[in-house]
Design goal:
The chain is mainly α and 204 residues long. The protein has a single domain, classed as Up-down Bundle (Four Helix Bundle (Hemerythrin (Met), subunit A)), CATH 1.20.120. It is 66% helix and 0% strand. It contains 6 helices and no strands. The protein has helices at residues 2-31, 39-61, 65-89, 107-132, 148-164, 181-194. Helix 2 packs antiparallel against helix 5 and helix 5 (148-164) packs antiparallel against helix 6. The radius of gyration is 18 Å and the shape is globular. The two termini are 13 Å apart.
Length: 204
């Protein structure tokens, strides 16, 4: 039973990652013309970020505490991977929109990095709370501080908005007509923020 639950959640996360990766490859590698040599880190990192966000969102809305814990921990692992991969490509070559001509980051870029790093720190606290306190004794899920999940979603929305919003209002410039992943991520973060937690586990 437990193994089946893990496999079910694992398949869901794997599906989100696969769909995100196909979308990222189509938008960036196929239509935008990003070199295929940049697929392993630059493009894959976008799918990792989306999967981390969706996993966190799911952890906030599902009913069963054990599932909230699993999705929350998966989100933390994926967020850590996203941070490491982002650090590897944080340069004017990969992300010119974040830098001025002097190769100094713009104000929006620094605020985006600040909100992302703050969200990561809060997520680390949630991991600590999850690891040191039994799930059954946590009335609000995997966190000891109610509202932390929503706080991370708000910070994530600001993180992607500060980074990608300049391209959101120009659909004619979207490669292949595909919306930016930052826009989709912001919408997803807001949606998960607004969604109520399920009151019971679905039957069947």
């Amino acid at each position: 039973m437990i193994c089946s639950a893990y496999m079910r959640d694992g398949r869901l996360v794997a599906t989100v990652f696969a769909v995100s990766l196909v979308y990222a490859i189509a938008r960036y590698s196929v239509f935008k013309g990003v070199q295929w040599a940049h697929l392993p880190i630059y493009v894959v990192n976008k799918a990792v970020a989306v999967t981390a966000l969706v996993s966190l969102g799911i952890s906030r809305v599902v009913y069963e505490k054990a599932r909230r814990k699993r999705f929350g921990l998966l989100a933390a692992v994926l967020a850590a991977l996203h941070l490491m991969l982002s650090y590897m490509v944080l340069s004017p070559y990969y992300m010119p929109s974040l830098f001025k001509q002097s190769n100094v980051m713009t104000l929006e870029a620094e605020l985006s990095m600040l909100t992302g790093a703050t969200a990561a720190c809060i997520l680390l606290w949630l991991v600590h709370a999850t690891a040191t306190h039994p799930t059954a004794g946590q009335p609000h899920g995997t966190s000891l501080v109610r509202g932390f999940g929503r706080a991370i979603l708000v910070l994530a929305a600001f993180h992607v908005a500060l980074y990608g919003s300049p391209d959101w209002a120009s659909p004619s410039r979207w490669p292949g007509g595909l919306p930016p992943i930052t826009l989709l991520s912001c919408v997803a973060a807001i949606a998960f923020f607004l969604l109520p937690r399920a009151r019971s586990e679905p039957k069947g």
